Amino acid sequence: MRLGLALGYWGRGPSPDHVELAREAERLGYRSVWTAESWGSDAFTPLTWIAAHTSTIELGTAVAQMAARSPTTTAMHALTLDHLSGGRMTLGLGLSGPQVVEGWYGRPFPASPLTATREYVDVVRQVLRREGPVQVDGRFHALPHRGPDGTGLGRPLKSITHPLRPDLPVLLGAEGPKNVAQTARIADGWLPLYWSPSRPDAYGPAVGRLPEGFRVAPMARVKVCDDVSEGLLGVKTMLGFYIGGMGHATRNFHADLMARMGYEEEARHIQRLFLAGRREEAVLAVPDAFADEISLVGSRERIAERLELWRKGPVTDLLALAPDRTSLRVLAELNS
What we know:
This protein is α/β, with parallel strands linked by helices. It has helices at 18-27, 44-52, 71-84, 98-103, 113-129, 177-186, 228-231, 233-245, 253-275, 279-284, 288-293, 300-312, 325-335; strands spanning 2-8, 32-35, 58-61, 64-65, 89-94, 136-137, 142-143, 170-173, 189-191, 215-216, 219-224, 296-298, 317-321. Strands 1, 2, 3, 4, 5, 8, 9, 10, 11, 12 and 13 form an eleven-stranded parallel β-sheet that branches. A two-stranded antiparallel ribbon has the order 6-7. The chain is globular. The termini are close together.
């Protein structure tokens, strides 16, 4: 099982520690470093900065939001960074949800998310393979544009720049069983959310029949500490925000996933508290048991024991979220 460093996205401003953490991860033998985006910092610019200060570590987006860019724009970002980094780029994509797509990007959330994702990946693949001009007669992504609001002058184009790797890896963030099944068919890997080694069935039957060489790269908060309850507080804070506030009361993919994992009553309770403005109570309402099973928190011995569960399943890459330098080093030592 390979290790990755997940840096996420910025809060109020850039972290002064991210480049040094990435360099330390590279020194410790971590395979990859990943950045993300929500509605603030973007995923590609910090990754480019990290690329300039490292030499071997793989660079991934976990995830770049599809609504933020047309698929050709995303492919341009990926092929450019792949060239600049000497072939270290991995493109992780996610559809996000209606709250972000419509509230931040001002675009309609697709009525058929699976179709929209499939078309998006198709365009990205065509750009990277550069076998001919990009042409897609899609429901959500059509190239050239032929809508009634166009000029009719568009023509199929092929990337001027030759991609360094036509098979640049594309991974998808997916939560629902149908989305996971499609991801196994059209992508090179999967970025699961809230992965629990003891509950793979929560993602549907496709998890049991993944193709050879398919990457499974979940994020897990890693924290070496004496007090497990205190160490889990950061996990619960993240869960309270995502389950309570990352979506509408009637459509929250993160809350739905938690419900499928056996915590439906707790998920709906967290939602109600968060949406009522009682955010601290929402965080405290996250069960320690749930936070614990999707993370690696505790003493070195406890993490070593729990790490064995992660190794027994389909996980190929464990992406350590928000570790300090000690936790980063201990995880590398335990996985060597």
